[in-house]
Amino acid sequence: MILLTQFFGALYGLLAVVFGAFGAHALKKSFTEDQLGSFETGVKYQMYHALVLLILSFNLGFNSDLEIAMAYCFIVGTFLFSFSIYGLCLTGSKGKKLRFLGPITPLGGLLLVAGWGLLLYSFIQKLI
């Protein structure tokens, strides 16, 4: 689980830099301000959670179901949240918005919130 978390942390970090540069340069001419803002939100959340995954992978042993669930929430949540935003922005700029992606974004966000909640719970457990 440690290697999987490190893999996704590094992959998401790499792709966040690539997508951020792509958005700032290549998409600037074809996106509206709202689309650029949304795309940037996806990139920021992807990078934040790439860093979280890397930090967790170096600090947790993933010996408990709680730690494993937390990692999966961050991995899957990041994918659903950020990549659905990218899909909505890219298809929206072409006038063919894939509307089925709309409900996926909040599902990804919910998984991210769950990951943070599990992290908080793991700290509370240690305090009690």
From TrEMBL:
Keyword Transmembrane part of the UniProt annotation = yes
Q: Name one GO cellular component term.
A: plasma membrane
Subcellular compartments: Membrane
Residue ranges annotated as transmembrane are 6-24, 45-62, 68-88, 100-124
Q: What is its main location?
A: membrane
Keywords, A to Z, come to: Membrane, Transmembrane, Transmembrane helix
The family this protein is said to belong to: Belongs to the UPF0382 family.
Under which name does UniProt file this protein? DUF423 domain-containing protein
